[in-house]
């Protein structure tokens, strides 16, 4: 982690969600459903329904019930959904089901460190966030530390050492 997947997904979500009839962003799915039990998946399904339907009278009783509700209640809507930090196939299956759940033009963005998950689910498009190149990382660090694109005189070596330690991860800088 740390290359900016969540930040990128949130930015895209904020920029284009108004082009969709309904939208939802669910963050930290891996942390929320750590135990991988159905209770946590039900809570995530409930949040998705609450966000999309904007009503509180639909209650998820089980993950199967949640799948049925999502599949029927969202059918036909053009939705934008971000599922952040997914690490297990069940999370994707119970939250995004099949393409028939959503109307034409819908977009589901999934952030994950598990490449096998993306292959298993046969995603239409996959974008890989890469670590920053050393010169880009140095420039980012210097903008934050010195408010300029290069190190202040006398701090060149220390700046380069910090960038190497961060390993090209923007969040570490």
Automatic annotation (TrEMBL):
Swiss-Prot/TrEMBL keywords: Leucine-rich repeat
InterPro entries (UniProt xref): Apaf_helical (IPR042197), Disease_R_plants (IPR044974), NB-ARC (IPR002182), P-loop_NTPase (IPR027417)
NB-ARC domain mapped to chain residues: 1-149
MF-aspect GO terms: ADP binding
Membrane-spanning intervals of the chain: none
UniProt keyword Cell inner membrane, yes or no: no
Alphabetical list of Pfam families matching this protein: NB-ARC
One GO BP: defense response
Entry keyword annotation includes Ion transport: no
Residues annotated as signal peptide: none
PANTHER family noted in UniProt: ADP-RIBOSYL CYCLASE_CYCLIC ADP-RIBOSE HYDROLASE (PTHR11017:SF573), LEUCINE-RICH REPEAT-CONTAINING PROTEIN (PTHR11017)
Protein name stated in the entry: NBS-LRR resistance-like protein RGC110
